[in-house]
Structures are given as C-alpha cells and as structure tokens.
C-alpha cells in the first residue's frame, strides 16, 4: 500500500515518526506531509530519513502547481496523526489552505484520523461536531486515548499509540468496499479439450490466482461472476460460479455474461488448440505412433478486446522468457487496459503455488513489478491498480 502520513502540529507529532517506521515495517510505502505548525515540533528531515522520501510541506514551494493532485492519485490511504482540533475543523469544512488540506480534498481513498489535543478542546462541541461530520463521511478515527496530557491536565486527548493506529490502518485496508459499483467478470483455471471420451489436453493452471481475484473483488463489494474451468478449489463466498470445461464453453459463457460487467479479468489459462471432431468412442491403441491435427480455439481475450466498450479489460500473460516485452505485445494486440504477467516455470511462483510474483503493464504506459507474495495479496494490489487506472483513463478522456 502507498500511504500518505499527514502530520499535524501537536506535541504528539514525534509519535508519528514511530508510526512511519511501523508502517514501513509492514511493507507499506510512506509519503510524509507536514503542516507548517508540525515543523515547530519535528523537522522534516526526521521523516525524510525514515521514509527515504522527500517530505512535502509547503503548497507553493513544490515543483509543480498540481503536485497535491498527483500525490493524492498515487496513494491508497491517507492517515492524519496527530489530527489537531484545527486540522479536524479544516477537513470537516473543506478549507484547503496548505498542502495537506488541499491534498485531502483531492484524495478519494480511505482516510484514518488520529486526533490529539487538550481534553477541553477535544470535548468542545465544535470539535465533536467536526468529528461527527468526518465520521459520517466514512473516515475512521482512532483514539484519542485517556491519560496525562502535555498541558498538565488528565483526560481524553492523547494520541493513540502508533501500534493502535497502524492496526486501524490495516483494518481500513481490509474493510475497503471500493468495488461496490462494479460487476467483475473473472475467468479462472485451465480448460480441458477432449481427445476422446476419456482423454483431454490441458495445462497446469490451478485456478488459484483467478479465485483469489474473485474472492477479493467480492470482499470489496463487487458483484462477481466467476467462469471457471475444472479446478480443485472451493467456491469463493458471495461469488456467482459458472463451471465450464472447454475453451469454446468458456467463450460462450463469457459473452452471455458480458452485459453487466464493468471489469473483465481473463486469468484463465485457455488451451490454445483443440480437436474439432472428437471421436465418440475411446481411441484404441492400434498404431505405434499417432499424430493429432489440432485447430485453434477461439481467442476469447482478443474478441473481448474488440467488443469491450467502456469496460476495463485485464489479460494475463504466462511467459517463460521476455516477460515485459511479451506482456506489452499482448496488451496492444488484444486491446487490454492492463496485462498481469508472470514468469512461469519456477517452482515457487506461478501455476500451482500459493504465491505469485507478477509485473503489471498498463495502457497508461506503467510497468509495475510486485514482489513475491500470497496470491490474495497480489489480487488486492491488482484491484488497487485497476481502480487507479480507471481514474487515470477517465481523467485522460475528460470524462
Ligand atoms: N486467452 C484467451 N483465449 C485463448 C487463449 C488465451 O482468452 N484461446 C487469454 C488468456 O486468458 C490470457 C491471455 O489470453 O488472459 C494470454 O494467454 P497466453 O496463452 O499467455 O497468450 P496467447 O494469446 O496464447 O499468446 P502466445 O501463445 O503468443 O503466448
């Protein structure tokens, strides 16, 4: 995940340095944004050293006048810690007078707020009303904790511990429902192309990547139609499963169900060739050598590329060499918006493994390598990128 850490001006600002470290330990990339007031308590250099990135501070001292927009688009989650009374008020009312508050308005992902202030300021009806507004907007809050406060008073107002904030962030990531408006059509598994009533041609696909994509999409609120070749996996919860066997059956079911789909993901390893006239009886062992005349199966992805309309189309490329080059070629030739490419042939990733290591290439020209991780995690990251791609395409089309 790419996380923006907004640091407000409070005595607790030093604790957000620890939060930055915890988030990095969990594998997230952290971009710190400091308000002017927060720099009275902590220097940007602290965050720059911890995160390995330039800290964003002043709206007018940055390289581009629209940097707050691009930073908002390039990140997945915004956490504000400490969120001071002043910041809560500005966020609640949409006042955008510095980098952090401007970025907040341009940001469309989940927001986590960790308030910290004097107990009377916290209990003031103005602060409580602002908090209510922000919570109604769907933002998550964590803390404040009770205890001894820097002002000498005791009560609610302490910044929640960095551990607690980071737990809340993990929860926000898991509970995202950002696909509620989407209908996702996923194909998964291998196809089997019969040679006679008992034999078939197939491949080593286990279906795990496609099933993980279906599961994650359903968990994030999408309607999911999963068209699956023969696999040994349980039906994912909340998913409409359509079982098929051959490439031609998969083709027919894909186009029967294309209507409502807004995102189509072709993770199935479709057999490229089949026997067009399958003998009705089992073929007997008569000759010492047999040869098979095979015909190509319909290229479902290529046909989708021609008929996709406004839908986002994601193809897969399993390659043994020239990974990125091949993925780009498939992206272009099959009119995809994204191709998920993985090197197959290694034992610990690819077809039968629980893990995967992929590179995404996108229509917008990006090449994004994802290091080895469980297939569910990879699936989550693929959807993060799909949703970003949708925004980028809409922005480019002026829609
Ligand atoms: N695919 C498809 N229909 C087929 C063959 C493949 O829809 N008959 C889709 C797969 O679901 C995958 C993508 O095409 O999303 C790439 O599959 P792959 O077998 O890697 O590519 P091919 O088109 O077969 O290209 P090549 O043989 O040149 O590698």
Rounded mean pLDDT is 92
Helix content: 25-40%
The CATH topology of the largest domain? Rossmann fold
Placed side by side, the strands forming the largest sheet appear as 12-11-8-13-16-17-18-19
CATH class of the largest domain: Alpha Beta
Radius of gyration: 26 Å
List low-confidence stretches.
none
Which structural category fits the helices and strands?
alpha/beta
Largest sheet: 8 strands, mixed
Separate helix tally: 13
Distinct ligands, ions and cofactors found in the model: cytidine-5'-triphosphate
| Oligomer category | single chain
The counted number of beta strands is: 19
The assigned CATH architecture of the largest domain is 3-Layer(aba) Sandwich
